[in-house]
Amino acid sequence: MSNTEEQPHLATAELELRRQQIYPTLNDVEMGFVSRFGEKISFGDGEQVFHAGHPTGGVFFVLKGSIAIFRHDGFDNNVRIVTLRPRQFSGDVGQLSARPALGDARAIGEVEAIRLSAPQLRALIVAHADLGERIVRAMIVRSVALFTKNSGGPVIIGPRTHSGVHALQSFLTANTHPHVVLDPAEDERAAAIVAQCQPSREEWPLVICPGIGIKKNPTLPELGRCIGMLRPLEDKVWDVVVVGAGPGGLAAAVYAGSEGLSVVMLESRAHGGQAGASSRIENYLGFPTGVSGLALTRRAYVQAEKFGVEIAIPASAGKLDCSKYPLEIEMCGTQERLMAHCVVLSCGARYRRPAFPNLRQFEGKGVYFGASSVEAKLCKDEEVVLVGGGNSAGQAAVFLSGHAKTVHMLIRKQSLSSTMSSYLIERIESISNIALHTESEIISLEGDENGLQRVRIRKGCEAEECDYDVRRVFLFIGADPNTAWLRDTDIELDKHGFILTGTKQARLTLQTSIPGVFAIGDVRAGSTKRVAAAVGEGADVVAQIHRFLAEKGY
Ligand SMILES: Cc1cc2nc3c(=O)[nH]c(=O)nc-3n(C[C@H](O)[C@H](O)[C@H](O)COP(=O)(O)OP(=O)(O)OC[C@H]3O[C@@H](n4cnc5c(N)ncnc54)[C@H](O)[C@@H]3O)c2cc1C
């Protein structure tokens, strides 16, 4: 392992300014608080404090000596990020829930420290709000820095255009987990790993998981387990199981966790749900300049962890057994079952998939249902087609116009006025590289194993058909509720598949037709499909859960 001190000029100016926030030095009073929650531990000079990819054992508040923290790049070339001095502490936000380390740490000199496990750390943060704020802020900024510098996470090895690479990369990006993508055609270290592993066609991409080793074409749950986002869940009766970590589910988890209920939240893909795909939310209260959906929901995710919510990603609820009480939820693809007094269904909606026979062939290889930084990089200086006329399509068009050469926006209607907010229409009109094509639709996709090459479009009232050589198409054509998995239950749905609530007991407006099962947010019939509405219902449902549990005598 080669270790070199990180050069100061490598830090961005912004991060340098925030150094004090990132590595605060606590005062004697604060160290006194810390010592009441943890226990003393010592390390000899040069001893490893923790290893990347392995549990850290807790957060270390240095009393004597120093702890050097090293960036981990997956190839044993480590760079020192920082040396923690007395009254400074280790850890990023992952330590709120005992996730594996993203870096390595070694003692310099004889070290004495106070170690706080994740529950002890959370107890300290809740008991001492001012100190808690400094600690959590430092951890958030460290996590952002690790993500921005792609430090400490898995290394994905494969051709940049490979759909498997895209799937893993978008999963990690959506969960703001640091990672690196290396194309063996461009990177010698990646080429050496490929030569060593000799992957067959089905075994691409390769992933180096710190602390674990090389995985061939891992599934998302496998990757989730490698990076510690998916762990075995405690076998007990949970007060609340929340299904879906969009804004509604996150709000329910935060309120329930902060009010002392035991909560586990299952999420199929990434925290943030649909809102996580929004490049800029401008109508959420308190953010006059707008906020990206990822930033907003990442904060909520950390907040939920702070209150001890157990979050499992990627973990899909596959079956809900309402014939028993406690209720039982079976997770997809595993035999794992969770028991719960209450279940909150906040599983939202997902983009409609048009009925092109070869759509699946191009998903992630030219056809996308979201526009994040991953897709933005792919379409740099290209002509792209974006289908849809709602607010989400408008936001995506504005975002992509900053990267693509031209964004061709296709809508079936004659104008955007009935489907999009006026502020977005005005913005789209003012951007010269967004071309709006009214009364237009895609009628077929063409390409080969390398991806999409061409689309056939029907345009205007004359229904003229023409081919466009574009390699990226973004589809934002409305959403269907994620309720197919509830088909075998007695939960009443409306004719479009949205969940009906308030039908049994008028007082419990968010309860479904099954006692103890609640539904909130976009998946609920009649809900307002907005972030604020989902968050409001997330708060409201916890009050209703308390009422339900009190009536049950819990
Ligand atoms: C691109 C875009 C931009 C938007 N912009 C705005 C805006 O500017 N302002 C605004 O107010 N609203 C906006 N919206 C709408 C807003 O995002 C939604 O109203 C809001 O996200 C709904 O929250 P939710 O928690 O109910 O559901 P969702 O956000 O849909 O989250 C549901 C979650 O449940 C998960 N899930 C589904 N099934 C399962 C299962 N079986 N097991 C486990 N997990 C499951 C999904 O993966 C998802 O993460 C936008 C939507 C999009 C797509």
Structure characterization notes:
- The chain has 554 residues and is of the alpha/beta class.
- Helices cover 28% and strands 26% of the residues.
- The protein contains 15 helices and 27 strands.
- Strands 11, 12, 13, 14, 15, 16 and 27 form a seven-stranded mixed beta sheet that branches. Strands 1, 2, 3, 4, 5 and 6 form a six-stranded mixed beta sheet that branches.
- A hairpin with a 5-residue loop joins strand 14 (317-321) and strand 15.
- Helix 4 (118-127) packs across helix 5 (129-148), helix 9 (247-258) packs parallel to helix 10 and helix 13 packs parallel to helix 14.
- The longest helix has 22 residues, at 531-552.
- The protein is globular, with a radius of gyration of 25 Å.
- The relative contact order is 0.09.
- The site of flavin-adenine dinucleotide (FAD) has 38 residues, from helix 9, helix 13 and helix 15.
Task: Tell me the strand percentage band.
Answer: 25-35%
Head-to-tail CA distance between termini:
55 Å
DSSP strand tally = 27
Shape: globular
Instruction: State Rg.
Output: 25 Å
How is the biggest beta sheet arranged?
7 strands, mixed
Structural category is: alpha/beta
Contiguous low-pLDDT stretches (5 residues minimum) are 1-10
Tally the helices.
15
Helix content, binned percent = 25-40%
Q: What is the average per-residue confidence, as pLDDT, rounded to a whole number? A: 93
- Which cofactors or ions or other ligands sit in this model? flavin-adenine dinucleotide
Entry keywords:
single chain; alpha/beta; 7-stranded mixed β-sheet; 6-stranded mixed β-sheet; 27 strands; 28% helix; 26% strand; globular; disordered N terminus; binds flavin-adenine dinucleotide
